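Example record

Each entry pairs one chain with its bound ligand, iron/sulfur cluster.
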Amino acid sequence: MYKTDFKDYICRPLCMFFAEDEKEEMACLGARAAARLYENGSIGPGEIRNIIKDREVWEKHRADLGHVLCRACEFCAEDCDFQSPEPSGDLEPCGGYILLAHLIEQNAISIKDVEKVI
Ligand code: SF4
Ligand code: SF4
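Structure tokens for the complex follow.
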């Protein structure tokens, strides 16, 4: 699935870093992993549509998704401060992370499912 596809269901509705007219050369690993789970049928459009962003949910999964996902993400070193030791209070993770955190919380997927597509 090309970035323009998952832009519609991950980046635009969920990601604070998304800018309509900005062309990103590369998608973050959070978005790519979520797109791979969509492609392999682990998640479907219905589950995605029901996501309402909740800080408590993504904070709860900071350690497990940090270990499996963010640690391997090319954006972690320079572009994304979410997993830095002292992130600013209003900082959010990327849309892909948010989607995965909510789906894990709902038991729609497991952290092992995420691990398999990294
Ligand atoms: S950081 Fe990831 S989820 Fe956010 S706009 Fe870029 S590719 Fe999409
Ligand atoms: S929260 Fe940041 S480091 Fe983690 S997957 Fe998203 S962009 Fe990458």
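The chain has one domain: 3-116.
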